[in-house]
Amino acid sequence: MKHISGKVPMNQLSAHSFNTVVADYLGKQLPNAMASALSFRSMPSDVQDFITRMLILMQKAHFPVTDFTPSLIWQLGNIIPGFLPCAWRGMVPPLTLSKRHAKIDAYVSKHIFPDRLTSPVFVDIGCGFPPITTMESAATLSEWRVFGVDQSFSDYLLHDREGNYACFNEQGEFEYFQPRFSRVGVRMYQNSAEVQSRFKKIFDELQLLLSSKTGQANETIDKDGYKLIHHPIRNYEAPNLSFVESKLEDVQTPPAHIIRCMNTLLYFKPETQQHMLVKLGSQLADGGMLIVGSNLMNGASCRYTVYKREGAFVVPIEFALTVDNLGPFNVMPWYTLHDNDPEAMQLADMIHQLRANQSFWPGFTKRLDHLMEHYGLFQRDGEGFFHAPEDEHLAADFSERVSHMWRQIEEEGLTNEAVDALQCAGYTAWKNPVGDIAIQPNAPSFKLPE
Fold first, then answer.
1. How far is residue 41's CA from residue 16's CA, in Å, rounded to a whole number?
2. How many angstroms separate the CA atoms of 362 and 356, rounded?
3. Dmax over Cα atoms in the chain, in whole Å?
């Protein structure tokens, strides 16, 4: 990523405080009470690099330091260190969350194909495990044949009493744990070694109770509130849903009318992403669409690019984002694992244009500030920085309040105003069928190999 105006090279980050790096890129320091929540110097280098890429994108988007929120800082300190591949020995965490892709499913449902499809095919690349979102897609798109594809499905799934789970491979080796998405659950990332040890001890005890550790039979052991499932992928199959364990370059499915590849390409460098797009485009039926992008739980902060196969070419037809990408609540608008991530750069450009539009941004941010205070989320102090009401911790129902607030933003027509502002900036922009801000993307078309 181009180093825009910061002075701290990435290989020297560990010698600097978080506030020094923030001021280096955004021109001003955070209040000490906010900045001190991050022990930047002691963070793994991969986490420091992530934060620096975030600040570079913020600078590109003209995101001011005064728009940092306590929730954004909390995520940097508590969630990001547990999400990055460095926390899992380089493995991409197979995270899945209920309703994460509901809006993408709605987008597919609303799309009108020129010819009525018979037995249409939907392929979910990088479906993760457990494949919750793929199951939900199969239920929503009940007339479609759905294929969930991932390079590895865990051989064992272990649930504890609190709703957390862990995955183990065929040899009984620990792979990954996923806490419940609550403040208490996320704290498990801070004691990862202890959590892994606890899960491994329970696994060893329950595995002894299995009738067989070989073969492909599905079996479940329940004991004392714990549940161990052997070959759990069998439990997720349905009449219109099949799973394919395969690397992307080797995957074989029927020609697809829709390929969804969410939260997957961002793990690869841009040049590898382009190679993967060609491979995915080759899997499309003529007229089929490829949807790639990123999002959070419940589809929050969603950004996605839609490509369409037209004969021997795959053409980008839409880049879309949910309006909450314009807010300061979470890291997802700035989430990248490599320099110059194309979608993140496109998003930062759009945010910059919206912030620069004086007919839109002052009114939008004024309304946003008012609603954040109204919903008991954050309010600004005398110096313009956000803090939680009466400096309390984030509310237990914080995510629900945020969702309600953004729904009100949409109902008040501010998404339409954002579209108008982008049109004024020279974009071909519109509100797409699921209510998201959409533009004609600047990504190139590409020709498929013969």
1. 7
2. 9
3. 69
Question: Are residues 153 and 243 in contact, defined by beta-carbon separation less than 8 angstroms?
Answer: yes
Please name which of 155, 177, 174 lies closest in space to residue 166, comparing C-alpha atoms.
177
Residue 321 and residue 388 in contact, taking contact as beta carbons nearer than 8 Å: no
- Return d(Cα 27, Cα 10) in angstroms, integer: 18
Q: pLDDT digit string (tens) for 34-52?
A: 999 999 999 999 999 999 9
Give the residues across from 437 on adjacent strands: 321, 431
Name the amino acid, one letter, at 362. Answer: P
Going 186 to 189 to 194 to 200, the CA torsion angle's sign is positive
Contact yes or no for 427/442 (Cβ under 8 A): no
DSSP class of residue 392 equals P
Are 227 and 159 a contacting pair, CB within 8 Å? yes
Whether this model's pTM surpasses 0.90: yes
DSSP structural state of residue 314? E
CB 316 within 8 A of CB 441: yes
Here the contacts of 206-214 (C-beta below 8 Å, separation 24 or greater) are 206/158, 207/156, 207/172
Query: Which tokens hold the place of 105?
Result: 């499913």
